[in-house]
Amino acid sequence: MYPLLAAAALLVAPSTAALSQSAPKTDSDWTTAYAQARSYLSQFTLEEKVNLTTGVGWQGGHCVGNIPAIPRVNFPGLCLQDSPVGVRFADRVSVFPTGINTAATFDRELIRARGEAMGAEFRAKGVNIALGPMMNMGRVAQGGRNWEGFGADPFLTGEAAYETIVGMQSQGIQACAKHYINNEQEHNRTLESSIVDDRFQHEIYTHPFLRSVAAGVASVMCSYKKVNGTYACGNDEMLNDVLKHQIGFKGLVVSDWSATMSTMSASAGLDMTMPGDITFFSGDSYFGGNLTQAVNNGTIPESRVDDMATRILAAWFLLGQNSSSYPPVSFDSFNINDPVQQHIDVQADHYKIIRKIGAASTVLLKNTNKTLPLNKPKSIALIGSDAGPASQGPNSFGDQGGDIGTLALGWGSGTANFSYLVSPLEAIQAQARKDHSSISWYLEDFNTYAAAIAGAYADVAIVFLNADSGEDYITVDGNEGDRKNLTAWHNGDNLVNAVARQNKNTVVVVHSVGPLIVEPWIDNENVTAVLWAGLPGQESGNSLVDVLYGVWNPSGRLAYTIAKDPSDYPAGIVDNSLDIPYTEGLEIDYRHFDAKNITPRFEFGFGLSYTEFAYANLKVTQVNTDTSDAEKTWASGKVASSDVGASLADWLHATYYCVSVDITNTGGVYGAEIPQLYLNPPAAANSPPSILRGFTSLPLDPGKTGTAQFNISRYDMSVWDVVQQGWIKPEGTYGLFVGASSRDKKLEGQLA
Ligand SMILES: *[C@@H]1O[C@H](CO)[C@@H](O)[C@H](O)[C@H]1NC(C)=O
Ligand SMILES: *[C@@H]1O[C@H](CO)[C@@H](O)[C@H](O)[C@H]1NC(C)=O
Ligand SMILES: *[C@@H]1O[C@H](CO)[C@@H](O)[C@H](O)[C@H]1NC(C)=O
Ligand SMILES: *[C@@H]1O[C@H](CO)[C@@H](O)[C@H](O)[C@H]1NC(C)=O
Ligand SMILES: *[C@@H]1O[C@H](CO)[C@@H](O)[C@H](O)[C@H]1NC(C)=O
Ligand SMILES: *[C@@H]1O[C@H](CO)[C@@H](O)[C@H](O)[C@H]1NC(C)=O
Ligand SMILES: *[C@@H]1O[C@H](CO)[C@@H](O)[C@H](O)[C@H]1NC(C)=O
Ligand SMILES: *[C@@H]1O[C@H](CO)[C@@H](O)[C@H](O)[C@H]1NC(C)=O
Ligand SMILES: *[C@@H]1O[C@H](CO)[C@@H](O)[C@H](O)[C@H]1NC(C)=O
Ligand SMILES: *[C@@H]1O[C@H](CO)[C@@H](O)[C@H](O)[C@H]1NC(C)=O
Ligand SMILES: CC(=O)N[C@H]1CO[C@H](CO)[C@@H](O)[C@@H]1O
């Protein structure tokens, strides 16, 4: 029992609200939008259609990407703007928790609510296409941009992408699913080629894009990478066959910035080139005049340009952006003194959802003898530079390309400027005032002797660690985007051990872009608690206080595996070759540790709570007894259809089995359990031992029981058949377990 934590004392309860009214865009929404687009397009000349597809060039407009206005037909132009955490290059905006933290909530409602709030800010600033969410896989623990995405499991990533897009687009903003595809490391990203087998591509890397299309995403960004030697933005197989045919994507494909490599990319399925010029400021383009000429000389049919322009206009109509009341662009990305700047405040009360997600994404990894939550400690020492603010403010570095003070974002184009950033020091000090705790701090990292003295006599010493990474155009402390190692920055490991030698109650807080090797101190008897806080955005300190003091009972779960040794991971950064073979196949992250029987330090899906939960009554029911031809064909191991959109067919995604379990809060305090459903495919599937196929967040009062429900579709039970080119059911029976992590099995059963 924790005296602080009566249910009534909770200021910020885990979310119980039903999903808000926002809904995915449907086929019929697209049909309407296409009809509007076709009719409008009939007024456009060839050159005007081409202009819809071609950005005006880097810094040629207010946004990072700009489609010019076409006054003759009253088309206002389009603004495309970064980033997945908020409006980049603008002021009076919110900086939301990162993708990796959002995924760690394992809570669909919070993920959707963040999408709604973010979408509202983009729209209010006059953006048409917001460049996110990012859904590349955490295939390589060191990958520089992993923190922008949703972790190392395709199902979790797919659900997070789905909820984010539904939320964003409910505000009338076009979301952009990126980076299609295989953008899993930064090093040499425009030169190297990802060699990916067709099956692994479908089951791992395209899955989040399939879920994005199911959400009705308006746009997809193709990546800098080559896939099997062909640039992703000119890859007929990946764009036309997989994305537009198999998955049936109806919106537009936009290039990553300068990722278009030829005019013929248009034939391969690229619909829009950004920022338009071949290289920044080059003044020319592969589209523009070249595309018009390619149509005129018969190389590219005009029907293809019509399709490109139709997709661009349909996406615009789909989101209701063809309206005189759509907000005009009111900021300039490149000139703070530009007359367009109106400094419109778009933050509303979004700090509330930001703080909540910050708390809900914090993972409790160790809690010896119930050290946490803190209960009015007499004295607290905060140790390490990550506890406090940066001396030059929260935007000391352009695009956050530096690591001084508390870390709440990685670096690169996936960032935004903080309007404010609450540091742990600031928030814990406010709590100390309420509790009458004495607080002291030592915000230097390298004088471990002085740090240890500073921490020695406090009731609790809290040591702050971080590790940073980002996009390859910025190098920080020798890290060219990707991390060069998996250890803490700023002497962090030594700092923990030095403080723990003097203080038997040392708590470690980690602000990291991804996994760290924690072996140097995790078993230290004096390290009594560890909170993995990730990159929580602007409310960082407040979110941390909510968890430290038990206002929020920790419910975050790891969205990746923390290994004991870097060599335990299945893949690393490739820096000696321009080919990156994805040889681990389906065995990324926990799937590899399971298949190779390697014990991780903390497995995917792991996280502790201040209460305990018991699991009972696993029920498996077949709910859909469809006997259509498609169902029968699939069940016999054959591909049911190769029609456009076959991979999103209703019968394939309809609920096929319902799985439920009863969960009881057997501890003393209110809190949410995150039950997870893993399938154990039959041998014939040739799949990893366990694959995530369901999760939910179940908040419960002490002593109360609730039911967690999971739906399994035929798609969830399918493998991609590379010969037949479709989803089939492997022979044999699927086992399953529901548990508290990818290894903590509570109840086992099977789909039969
Ligand atoms: C097409 O866009 C370019 C600038 O990007 C502009 O110079 C040209 O006038 C536009 N053409 C039409 C027909 O709008
Ligand atoms: C964002 O922060 C950078 C780095 O401090 C600064 O140069 C830029 O002016 C800021 N932009 C806005 C819109 O405040
Ligand atoms: C890449 O090559 C693999 C075989 O090495 C093949 O399975 C896959 O279909 C190819 N993908 C593309 C996009 O070319
Ligand atoms: C057409 O593309 C070529 C590169 O293939 C480039 O050199 C040229 O400047 C482009 N033309 C225009 C009008 O942008
Ligand atoms: C047609 O125009 C395109 C774009 O300028 C050019 O790349 C291509 O070589 C031309 N083809 C012919 C047959 O003239
Ligand atoms: C935890 O509690 C046990 C039993 O009271 C005690 O033996 C042990 O020393 C405690 N551990 C720490 C780290 O305080
Ligand atoms: C790992 O990289 C960080 C950041 O550059 C650096 O501070 C640290 O010393 C490196 N660790 C090792 C063991 O080299
Ligand atoms: C734990 O703390 C005690 C008391 O400060 C100290 O004697 C012991 O060496 C510490 N253990 C470690 C592993 O630092
Ligand atoms: C690609 O990576 C290698 C190895 O790090 C490096 O030497 C080379 O300069 C890189 N190539 C480019 C064009 O950056
Ligand atoms: C599960 O599927 C059933 C039947 O299609 C549906 O009514 C229910 O809402 C679904 N539940 C969830 C949690 O998706
Ligand atoms: C404000 C605006 O852009 N209105 C356009 C909406 O679409 C129709 C065609 O369907 C145009 O004629 C309008 O100019």
TrEMBL record:
<dbReference type="InterPro" id="IPR036881">
    <property type="entry name" value="Glyco_hydro_3_C_sf"/>
</dbReference>
<dbReference type="InterPro" id="IPR036962">
    <property type="entry name" value="Glyco_hydro_3_N_sf"/>
</dbReference>
<keyword id="KW-0326">Glycosidase</keyword>
<dbReference type="Pfam" id="PF00933">
    <property type="entry name" value="Glyco_hydro_3"/>
</dbReference>
<comment type="pathway">
    <text>Glycan metabolism; cellulose degradation.</text>
</comment>
<dbReference type="InterPro" id="IPR013783">
    <property type="entry name" value="Ig-like_fold"/>
</dbReference>
<dbReference type="Pfam" id="PF14310">
    <property type="entry name" value="Fn3-like"/>
</dbReference>
<keyword id="KW-0732">Signal</keyword>
<comment type="similarity">
    <text>Belongs to the glycosyl hydrolase 3 family.</text>
</comment>
<keyword id="KW-0624">Polysaccharide degradation</keyword>
<dbReference type="InterPro" id="IPR050288">
    <property type="entry name" value="Cellulose_deg_GH3"/>
</dbReference>
<keyword id="KW-0119">Carbohydrate metabolism</keyword>
<dbReference type="InterPro" id="IPR026891">
    <property type="entry name" value="Fn3-like"/>
</dbReference>
<dbReference type="Pfam" id="PF01915">
    <property type="entry name" value="Glyco_hydro_3_C"/>
</dbReference>
<dbReference type="GO" id="GO:0030245">
    <property type="term" value="P:cellulose catabolic process"/>
</dbReference>
<feature type="signal peptide">
    <location>
        <begin position="1"/>
        <end position="18"/>
    </location>
</feature>
<dbReference type="GO" id="GO:0008422">
    <property type="term" value="F:beta-glucosidase activity"/>
</dbReference>
<keyword id="KW-0136">Cellulose degradation</keyword>
<keyword id="KW-0378">Hydrolase</keyword>
<dbReference type="InterPro" id="IPR002772">
    <property type="entry name" value="Glyco_hydro_3_C"/>
</dbReference>
<dbReference type="InterPro" id="IPR017853">
    <property type="entry name" value="GH"/>
</dbReference>
<keyword id="KW-0325">Glycoprotein</keyword>
<protein>
    <recommendedName>
        <fullName>beta-glucosidase</fullName>
        <ecNumber>3.2.1.21</ecNumber>
    </recommendedName>
</protein>
<feature type="domain" description="Fibronectin type III-like">
    <location>
        <begin position="673"/>
        <end position="742"/>
    </location>
</feature>
<dbReference type="InterPro" id="IPR001764">
    <property type="entry name" value="Glyco_hydro_3_N"/>
</dbReference>
